[in-house]
């Protein structure tokens, strides 16, 4: 937005802060026309195509309140990151944003509550990494029985997928069968590659188990106090993940809750411990990256952002791209920290 916005920052308990302030009237009202255009692009008004409604008619149909709310949401999405950068606030998680005053030709009043990076001291993490790492070695050996079991499961899947309702026997594992599954030259080639895939999967899972155990141990031996706001954010994220998964299966989330005989609050209550672990994991990884000066390469980050935007053009825009940048940098930093854990012997 360019102009400096005066804010008051108040420290709260449990690594949280509250930011209060106002967006000046000239900056706020400058968004009127753009807000009207965005709303007009989605508005269905008889006699007009979406996006082609005269501004006066659109204003009358939508009403000032809806336009002002649209302006406020856009203004605050842009203002919050600017405040964080200007005041060097190490904010983490999703903020709770409240509009305290909104009216045409007036400043926009707001209140923002957010968690900030907790101050905590890492224990002797090199020692913990070595101790936990020794208890969780890589597992990649695959017995012949495991390969045969996997082959049997593939045969059963193929039998279920068969369009022949009279087929009772499982398909024979021969050259024709494996060539239909992929780029395999023979049954032996298929089993060799299947064994390699099983081995890689076992190794990945054992590494993930080790990483989780190490990070959890470091977190528990530190003086880390986790902000409640972060736990609540994580619970909301877990709920959104479940909702998305259920809806991808073609089911209604509300119907699923009825089937479970649970409310969303009851689900969250059951996830409390996992949410705390997930938040602790993220905070410890971030602290380790800081301690070891681990940071992803600038060009690699931007190449990945470019790749994401090329395949998802609808995400282009200042606010969305800032979020993508933060996401990519976090994922890459986490991967580098995991490699660091594996390198400590």
Automatic annotation (TrEMBL):
Keywords for the protein's UniProt record, in alphabetical order: Chaperone, Isomerase, Rotamase
EC number: 5.2.1.8
Membrane spanning residue stretches: none
UniProt domain Trigger factor C-terminal: residue ranges: 186-341
Annotated signal sequence range: none
GO BP terms in the entry: 'de novo' cotranslational protein folding; protein transport; protein unfolding
Occurrences of domain Trigger factor ribosome-binding bacterial (ranges): 6-154
Top-level taxon of origin: Bacteria
GO MF, one annotated term: protein folding chaperone
Reaction(s) catalysed by this chain's protein: [protein]-peptidylproline (omega=180) = [protein]-peptidylproline (omega=0)
Subcellular location: Cytoplasm
Tagged with keyword Oxidoreductase: no
InterPro entries xrefs: Trig_fac (IPR005215), Trigger_fac_C (IPR008880), Trigger_fac_C_sf (IPR037041), Trigger_fac_ribosome-bd_bac (IPR008881), Trigger_fac_ribosome-bd_sf (IPR036611), Trigger_fact/SurA_dom_sf (IPR027304)
Keyword match Isomerase: yes
Family matches, as Gene3D superfamilies: Trigger factor ribosome-binding domain, Trigger factor, C-terminal domain
Record-level GO cellular component terms: cytoplasm
The family this protein is said to belong to: Belongs to the FKBP-type PPIase family. Tig subfamily.
Protein name: Trigger factor
Organism: Candidatus Vogelbacteria bacterium RIFOXYD1_FULL_44_32
């Amino acid at each position: 937005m360019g102009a400096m916005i005066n804010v008051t920052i108040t420290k709260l308990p449990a690594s949280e802060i509250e930011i209060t302030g106002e967006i000046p009237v000239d900056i706020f009202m400058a968004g009127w026309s753009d807000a009207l255009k965005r709303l007009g692009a989605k508005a269905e008004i008889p006699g007009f195509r979406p996006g082609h409604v005269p501004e006066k008619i659109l204003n009358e149909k939508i009403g000032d309140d809806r336009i002002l709310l649209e302006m406020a949401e856009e203004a605050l999405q842009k203002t919050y990151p600017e405040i964080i950068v200007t005041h060097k606030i190490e904010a983490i998680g999703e903020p709770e944003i409240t509009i305290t005053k909104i009216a045409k030709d007036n400043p926009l009043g707001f209140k923002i509550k957010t968690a900030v990076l907790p101050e905590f001291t890492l224990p002797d993490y090199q020692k913990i990494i070595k101790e936990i790492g020794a208890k969780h070695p890589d597992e990649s050996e695959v017995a012949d029985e495991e390969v045969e079991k996997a082959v049997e499961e593939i045969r059963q899947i193929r039998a279920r997928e068969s369009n022949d309702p009279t087929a009772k026997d499982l398909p024979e594992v021969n050259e024709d069968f494996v060539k239909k599954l992929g780029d395999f030259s023979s049954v032996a080639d298929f089993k060799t590659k299947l064994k390699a895939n099983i081995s890689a999967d076992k190794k990945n899972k054992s590494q993930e188990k080790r990483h989780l155990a190490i990070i959890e141990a470091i977190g528990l031996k530190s003086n880390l106090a986790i902000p409640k706001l972060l736990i609540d954010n994580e619970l909301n994220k877990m709920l959104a993940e479940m909702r998305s998964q259920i809806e991808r299966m073609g089911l209604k989330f509300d119907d699923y809750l009825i089937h479970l005989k649970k409310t969303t609050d009851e689900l969250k209550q059951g996830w409390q411990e996992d949410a705390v672990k997930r938040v602790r994991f993220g905070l410890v990884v971030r602290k380790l990256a800081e301690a070891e000066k681990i940071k992803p390469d600038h060009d690699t980050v931007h190449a990945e952002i470019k790749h994401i935007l090329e395949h998802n053009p609808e995400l282009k825009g200042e606010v969305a791209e800032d979020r993508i940048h933060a996401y990519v940098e976090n994922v890459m930093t986490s991967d580098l920290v995991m490699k660091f854990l594996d390198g400590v012997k």
